[in-house]
Amino acid sequence: PGFWICSCASPGTDGILRSLLSHYSSSLLSVLYAASSVPAAATSQSRKLTVSLSSPSASPQKGQTGSTENEEALEDAVLAEKGGFEPLPLNATMRHIANNMLKTYGTSHVLAGLILADHRVVAMSLAKNFVLQPTDIVLLVNFVVASPALRQAESWTPICLPGFNDRAFLYMYVRYLVPHVCYICLSSKNDGDQFFALSSHCTKTFALLTNTGCLTAIERSREYCPYSLPRSLWGSLALLHVGFFLPPSKQFFSSALSSEIDTGKHAIRDILKLYVQCDESLQGAKLPTHAYIETERHKAYVWRTAEFHLYTAVPAWIELTTVVLEQLAKWVMDQRPFLFITNIPVISG
Predict the structure, then answer these.
(1) Could you read off the pLDDT of 76-108 as tens digits, one per residue?
(2) What is the pLDDT of residue 68?
(3) Which of 49, 104, 158, 204 has the fewest Cβ atoms within 10 angstroms?
(4) Contacts of 97 (CB under 8 A, 6+ apart)
(5) In the predicted model, what is the mean pLDDT of residues 110-134?
(6) What is one process in the GO biological process aspect for this record (predicted)?
(7) What is the pTM of this model?
């Protein structure tokens, strides 16, 4: 048996620590299975391949400025506890182009295809009857983002996804199209022909994304992440942060922390702790339900329905009415084609 032990000086972080330990244990399991299969994977190819055994990080690298690694890990843990992943906000037409490129591979035994921009998922396709658990998506993303070896060339590496099968492994083709945009393909087949077929498909995908302007749109959106809320709509409310989680698809959106309010160095840490406390107070509650916690500096509101979970924080002197929260939720829901992946195509063939 294996044991994980973690301690923290800050009170009220039990849920966060549980999530971090869960991520570390799943990541370790994935690495151990990968290590046990390296000889077979490395010797079966007719060309030099890169096999990554770097330990995945519990927190993907962020594009935010002014936040520490610990704060980033805290944010990921809060959202990961819900079993969700973060899509890249993208124009619906451009996302449709990316999704279409992941529908046909010209080879069998392909289980899933993904395009990433840093740790955010741009597009995704799945084989018929194959379920990629959100926790496995997070683990897969962390594995890729935290492995420097995967950035060097085309890579073919085994990976264990516990949500799919914690006693076996799949094979993952990885190639970075540009420094921050990555192509990933999961296969149940491990041989040279499969590698070359996926390599060819990746080359075609790169060409189409470039020629259509989709790759440029992805890179531009990545640079703007995390997105700020429109000042024209919510500036007068002095919103510090908004998080939005979709239970049916297990996707979440997390806005940028407001830059116009002096919230202090550890504001995001304080706000996320309030979110966790609200979540814990709502455990087992009948939907719809809500919670509210106030400190000397901040107020946090959490509103849960079957369709969405809304998280928002404001300075202590701001009041948010039910009407305003409903308007905020409606605005985010109206932005779903831009903020979330609304269609995951089925791989043909």
Answers:
(1) 556 556 678 999 999 999 999 999 999 999 899
(2) 42
(3) 204
(4) 208, 209, 212, 214
(5) 96
(6) vesicle-mediated transport
(7) 0.82
Neighbouring CB atoms inside 10 A of 42's CB total 15
Burial letters 112-122, b for 16+ CB under 10 A, else e: bbbbbbbbbbb
Q: In whole angstroms, what separates CA 315 from the centre of its chain? A: 28
Burial group, residue 89, by CB count within 10 angstroms (0-12, 13-18, 19+): buried
How far is residue 304's CA from residue 286's CA, in Å, rounded to a whole number? 9
3-state secondary structure of 348: coil
Q: Where in the chain are the domains?
A: 90-222, 229-337
Local confidence band at 257 (pLDDT 50, 70, 90 cut-offs): confident
What CATH topology corresponds to 90-222?
A: Beta-Lactamase (3.30.450)
The verdict on whether omega for the bond into residue 315 sits within 30 degrees of 0, i.e. cis, is no
Q: Do domains 90-222 and 229-337 have the same CATH topology?
A: yes
189-213 as b/e: b if 16+ CB within 10 A = bbeeebbebbbebbeebbeebeeee
Confidence of residue 338 (pLDDT cuts 50, 70, 90): very high
Query: Does residue 226 have a cis bond before it (omega within 30 degrees)?
Result: yes
